[in-house]
Task: structure prediction
Amino acid sequence: MRLNDFDAVLFDLDGTLYHEGVALPGADDALRRLQRAGLRTACITNASARTSEQLSQTLADMGIDVPSEAIYSSGQAAVDWMLETWEHPRVYNFGGAAIATMLEGKATLVTSDDQPCDVVFVGTHTRVEGVPFNMDRALVGLAHLRRGAHLALGCADRVFPIAGGGVEFGSGALGALFIYAANLPEERIFRAGKPGAAFFEHLCARLKVTPRRCLLVGDNLESDIAGGKRLGMTCALVLTGVTSRAEAQAADVDLVVEDLTALINLFDEQDAAR
Ligand SMILES: [Mg+2]
Result:
């Protein structure tokens, strides 16, 4: 595996480029090194509570320079799907404010259960960022789903880690609540984020690359590695996130490295050996 086997390298964010507000070893160096080698780079995340611009600023604050155009989030993927499916969708947003920002001028935001509604978006709720789960708001979403609206899920994540330890319910878990309550058929559900094929296909179309010429670097076997492998990407697992070395050894992954510094050293060694 050499760098010129690839046209693009995709990096997961949390657990790969940073964790708990701090850049992980080699994060900015790896991006620079790949850009110097002429590769396209992009960052991928199952975050729907922040826009690409906000995520770019968060990375900049940690010393990682990534323009907003190079960040693809599950929230953006959900918005892309809504705008492709309906000319001017009527959306009930049961998620963070970022979705409303991304839909501004392109959709009607439904606010009550007596308005027409095409799609209910269900995304991350977290006490930490001030978007707590609200039962009354959830019931408005449920009423729309029971009357025939589609469900757009931020991602399939069961839980997500929060700063200081512990977890909160992921969008996938909240989605399961709505799917069960409304007895939703699969054809009315869109799962926007990783590891869904649509997420990676949209991103590759944006980057104008084929999945087989992509290297995906992530810390999560379920959402990163399995998702990339399904589309034929080469997948590298870093041990700076949620996966232990023992779990990595038992998994179907092309390459396991300690961190991004180790990944870049590996490519440098291979180039030097040629
Ligand atoms: Mg991660």
About this structure: The chain is about 40% helix and 20% strand. The mean pLDDT is 94. The longest strand covers residues 40-45.
